[in-house]
Each structure stands twice: as structure tokens, then as C-alpha cells.
Write the C-alpha cells for this entry.
Amino acid sequence: GESVGLHLPTLSVQEGDNSIINCAYSNSASDYFIWYKQESGKGPQFIIDIRSNMDKRQGQRVTVLLNKTVKHLSLQIAATQPGDSAVYFCAENIVGNTPLVFGKGTRLSVIA
Amino acid sequence: GAVVSQHPSRVICKSGTSVKIECRSLDFQATTMFWYRQFPKKSLMLMATSNEGSKATYEQGVEKDKFLINHASLTLSTLTVTSAHPEDSSFYICSARDQGLAYEQYFGPGTRLTVT
């Protein structure tokens, strides 16, 4: 479980720069991964997903990279905008009936 | 995309009372729904998984008699926090899985519960 008192890691980036948010997932059997964006007081919002048979997937301004060897996931946001400021979570599961398990999250702060 | 709603969006109740939170899938049928809770500056923690028409499966450490979950239809699940205490104050988020898709999981907007 999480340690009491730990705050979310924060990434501060200048508007227009690229952001890279990292996540270490826990279950080597996981075969489906999602990145979510959560704004204050709201539920998680789907950004992009990737299956384990891929190592890269691109969306609009976002790219997810998967390294199964070291159980690492990253989210790249191109030309970061103030509206990207939020907490970002990675989530994993095994396709089927298992629920999504969330990582600890990273707060992205965009400096205008 | 698929829409999941929650009601109420925020609720304040007195210690010792019970509160019911509803989760609805608006445009799809959800055989499975999940309930998460989130403390400030923390990640989402899975509380329980509920399948339509059967008893919910609770995660370790979650009291099933305190957090009653009912999933009576393919579009509605409810979470009742019984005899609420201030430490139950949290952000509760439900999620629903489309019965036609094995991996898509859609999240509701969350319910902020404050117990005074």
C-alpha cells in the first residue's frame, strides 16, 4: 500500500514544451494499460490505452510507450498546454473480468 | 463515448447516518461495476467489484457490512455507506464495464462525501 504522508510527484513544464510522465506497473501478467487524466473534483478521464502486444501507440498530441521488460509505461504529451494541468494516472489490468488497478499518479503543472 | 453518471455529486451527512450513492450506465449495459475511493492527493483504491444479480466481491480491508453494494440491474449499482463516520469522508468513484467489451471501463464523475 501507499505510505502515509507521501504527496503526488509533480512535474512542472513550460507551456509549449513536451511532457513525459512515467509509471512503473506492478503485475507482469497485465496485458492492458490505460492513461487517465483527473482534474480536481472530477472522475478519471480516458486519454489513451495500449495492449501488451504493442510497444507504442499514438493519439492526438499524446503517445504511450510500453516496456514490458522493465514493466514501465510512459505518457508523452506534445506541446503541453495549460489545460493539460491535472493529475495523470496509469492503470493496468488483465483483459477479462479483472478491474483496473491504478498507479500512484503524477501531478502535471503547466507554467504559462 | 459511453457515459456513467453518479448521484449525488456531493453529500454532507451527520455521523451515524447512512448515505446511498447511485451509479448508472446511461447508454450501455454494464454487467460489471466497480467502486473506488480516493483520498486527497492519493490514487484510486478499488473497494469492490459487483456483477449484476450477484453479491459484490470486496477487496481486502473493505468492510462489506459498512459499504453495502447492490447491482440489481444492468444499468444501476448503488453503494450505501452505513453508520458513516468522519473517516469515511472521501471521494467515491464508480466505474462500469460494457458487457460487450472485456476491457473498456468507464468512470463516473465521482461523489464527494463529507461526514460531520
In short: Chain B touches chain A at residues 1, 4, 6, 32, 34, 36, 41-46, 49, 91, 93, 95, 102-103, 105-110, 112 (CB under 8 Å).
